[in-house]
Amino acid sequence: MELPESVKNCVKLLYDKKGEDILILDMRELIPEITDYFIIVTGHTHDHILSMEEYVEGEFAKRGLLPHHIEGHRHSRWILMDYGFFIVHIMLKEAREFYSLEELWGDAPRVRYDGEFKEEN
Question: What domains are there in the chain, each with its CATH number?
């Protein structure tokens, strides 16, 4: 699957900040009116997910790419960053397990990242 550069860059920024279990879901055939891609990443603590959010937002702002909105910014187990054609879900492990976006959108083609991009079936 060919991913847009901004999606790849976002994933690499999350990885740089020690984000874990990074998964990209291709949503183009499932909810094209909402977004093209979900990026899902797990953080260890609230401070960790907040630092990932701030890092991505800051680095993208330097490139002129600003989010449409951010939800769950403070005191949350899940921060959502909406960049239009991709949405970033930065979650604590327990929130990720509870909401289980991977299972909810089980039909979506997916790519994992752990230093390199790997398509899954």
Answer: 5-120 (3.30.460.10)
